[in-house]
Specification:
With about 290 residues, the chain is α/β, with parallel strands linked by helices. The protein folds into two domains: about 15-160, Nitrogenase molybdenum iron protein domain (Rossmann fold), CATH 3.40.50; about 175-285, Rossmann fold, CATH 3.40.50. About 45% of the residues lie in helices and about 10% in strands. The relative contact order is 0.14. The structure holds zinc ion. Zinc ion binds next to loops. Zinc ion binds near residues 53, 122, 207, 259 and 260.
Length: about 290
């Protein structure tokens, strides 16, 4: 009898549907997938190529959170709409805030910039912060007793340690004075601080504020004076301002950086690691000249 009970219990556990986990946006979802594996069903609210700054949760998005066992948000004002969706869904599961415990970087407040909170929310662009995200997600998974999550988190962390070293090696191939990048919005502050690259952006940490003509003119002067060649648009930001700025400064746009959203599967940035390798490769080639 005792023997039969022992054999029966795990079978029962497998018969249950895996718990549902909801991540607020695609980059977080990509990291969560690595930790959760087959132990949970993952839904992502603001999917690939979607601007999560100003996402509008529809009833179908709110329904994702109904009965979900865990929800994962970035925090620092990036995905406030996710909190409102959780409230609307009467979400009562485990809420993971990926940035909890990280030192925040204050949002830049230059001319023409605009932000939604005191902290720059784009911490994931520093691989060390993404490793913190993995730890936060793993802690949430542990509260749900998700099998294999700790092992998968450790393996993902080891991959990110390799990635971090690779980013440093790549940046080191660019002469220090050339380590400047101009991009659409101020999403790379953590990247810049971690890897020693200066970023210029006509738009602040948000993506909707229109930069002033004065701020754009100042950037054009800076691009010319410093012979900046690393000029990029972003995957989820309107490229109009940046394209105009590049044209007036007489430089060419060198491609699309993945700032706040992954690409669709099959694109150049379907997961976090691919996104970082894509961005860094483009930046390094363009910074060299
Ligand atoms: Zn952003």
């Amino acid at each position: 009898m005792f023997r039969r009970v022992l054999l029966f219990t795990p079978a029962l556990a497998f018969a249950q549907a895996p718990p549902v986990v909801v991540a607020s946006f695609s980059i977080l979802g990509g990291l969560a997938q690595q930790v959760l594996g087959p132990a949970a069903t993952l839904n992502v609210m603001a999917g690939p190529e979607v601007d999560a700054h100003h996402f509008q949760a529809r009833p179908s998005h709110i329904a994702m959170l109904r009965g979900a066992a865990m929800a994962i948000r970035n925090g620092w004002g990036f995905d406030g709409w996710f909190n409102r969706a959780a409230q609307a869904a009467n979400f009562s599961g485990v809420m993971v805030t990926a940035t909890d415990g990280l030192p925040p970087r204050p949002a830049q407040r230059g001319p023409g910039t605009h932000s939604h909170g005191p902290n720059d929310p784009h911490a994931w662009q520093d691989v060390a912060a993404a490793r913190h995200y993995l730890r936060q997600i793993a802690a949430g998974a542990a509260r749900l007793n998700l099998p294999g999550a700790a092992e998968r988190a450790a393996a993902a962390d080891a991959r990110l340690a390799v990635l971090d070293a690779w980013v440093r090696e790549q940046i080191a191939t660019v002469p220090e004075a050339r380590r400047v990048v101009l991009t659409s919005h101020d999403a790379f502050g953590y990247f810049g601080a971690a890897y020693g690259v200066r970023f210029l952006a006509p738009q602040g940490v948000s993506t909707q504020a229109e930069p002033s003509a004065q701020a754009v003119a100042a950037l054009i002067r800076e691009v010319r004076a410093q012979n900046i060649t690393a000029v990029f648009i972003e995957n989820m930001t309107n490229p109009a301002t940046l394209n105009r700025l590049a044209q007036e400064a007489g430089v060419s746009v060198r491609g699309r950086l993945y700032a706040d959203a992954l690409s669709a599967p099959g694109g150049p940035a379907p997961d976090y690691e691919a996104m970082m390798r894509h961005n860094v490769s483009l930046m390094v080639t363009a910074m060299r000249g």
